[in-house]
Specification:
By secondary structure, this protein is α/β, with parallel strands linked by helices. The protein is built from 8 helices and 16 strands. It folds into 2 domains: 154 residues, FAD/NAD(P)-binding domain (3-Layer(bba) Sandwich); 154 residues, FAD/NAD(P)-binding domain (3-Layer(bba) Sandwich).
């Protein structure tokens, strides 16, 4: 029996922007059956997490089951044979073939289809324009004038890193956001937090390491009731987070006007954002809450007529998260690539518990 999983490389391969790292400890953010006892930092950088997952794939001989540099162009179910037929393009040889499978698992992911904003004049801009998830590692931001659009997770991480080396960072935001504390008590700092050599050596003892992991995971995985509105665990978090944000913005308290959300904590993804608000208070960072009107050949114009010139603009504007598959998936006269679009047959990802779709045999998400 043959299975196919459409394997993607993951956020830690694609995201290379300065400051990218995990917001929870690496010893929690790993596979329980194949842990790494030797993480260099409490909150690992993206590259170290990428190396970890690639090392697990090598350790457990996953690569022999994987075809890299292949793109699925179409999947179609054949009732007469009870098989899925896939059109697969080999990107190295530039050839297309049809392969058949009993089952398909579409592990396509949600956050790898990065999306630039749709402001007028986007194509007119002459400087470097990139999404944060499409970072140019050859670009040197030193002494440059940089624009950053968006204050989601990547925007919050990249701004303080850029502030340290650029001439000017202008940060455009249109939504308030919570800057949170750790719910487990181990606060992340902007500076690296390496594990001492003696502690890493102690982790080589299986019993010592297991006890450490159990205690750490207990603090992280037993407090999910904080995400439930009006729960006792959620009560008071708003005041705690406001106090945190006020302390971090003490040099320029006016920055928080319009930046503190009116929705409850955990309504949207939280981030501790170490160094973010502090960076906004520095002289070479400007926070712009006025809406963007358009891009210009040299930068950005806001709706109040103010113009900004930049050497580069980075868009931390998220990804296409509508869950519509990027290629046709057809069965019994229905194509999920069309049916799940807002104007399609169902207009949304019609599934059973987000796993299986009626009328699409042996297809798992």
């Amino acid at each position: 029996m043959q299975f196919l999983t459409n394997i993607q490389s993951g956020t830690w391969l694609e995201n290379l922007y300065p400051g990218v790292r995990c917001d929870i400890p690496a010893h929690v953010y790993q596979s329980t059956f194949s842990p790494n006892t030797q993480w260099s930092e409490i909150f690992a950088k993206g590259a170290e997490i990428r190396d970890y997952w690639q090392s697990r794939a090598k350790k457990h001989d996953v690569y022999k089951y994987v075809k890299l540099r292949h793109r699925v162009n179409e999947a179609e179910w054949d009732d007469s044979q009870s098989l899925w037929h896939l059109k697969v393009h080999d990107l190295e040889k530039d050839t297309t073939s049809t392969e058949s499978f009993n089952f398909i698992i579409t592990a396509i992911g949600r956050f790898n289809a990065w999306k630039l904003p749709d402001y007028p004049g986007l194509d007119d801009y002459k400087g470097l324009l990139r999404h944060t998830s499409n970072w140019d590692p050859t670009f040197d931001p030193t002494n440059k004038k940089i624009g950053v659009i968006g204050n989601g997770a990547s925007g919050i991480q990249v701004v303080p890193s850029l502030q340290l080396v650029t001439k000017q960072v202008t940060h455009f935001v249109r939504n308030p956001t919570w800057i949170a504390t750790s719910w487990a008590g181990d606060e992340r700092t902007f500076e690296p937090q390496p594990y001492p050599a003696e502690q890493r050596q102690a982790f080589e003892d299986p019993e010592t390491y297991l006890a450490f992991r159990k205690e750490l995971e207990e603090r992280y995985w037993r407090r999910f009731r904080a995400m439930i509105r009006d729960s006792s665990e959620n009560e008071g978090l708003r005041e705690v987070f406001i106090d945190v944000m006020k302390k971090r913005a003490s040099k320029k308290p006016e920055l928080l006007d319009g930046l503190i959300p009116d929705f409850a904590p955990h309504c949207r993804r939280l981030t501790p954002g170490p160094g973010y608000i502090e960076a906004l208070t520095e002289d070479n960072v400007e926070l712009v809450k006025t809406s963007i009107k358009q891009f210009t050949p040299s930068g950005i114009e806001t709706v109040d007529g103010k113009k900004f010139d930049f050497d580069a603009i980075f868009c931390a504007t998220g990804a296409n998260t509508d869950l519509v598959p990027p290629f046709p998936i057809k069965a019994r006269g229905v194509d999920l690539h069309e049916a799940w679009k807002p104007d399609g047959k169902w207009g949304f990802p019609y599934t059973y518990l987000g796993v299986a779709t009626p009328g699409f045999p042996n297809l798992c998400r």
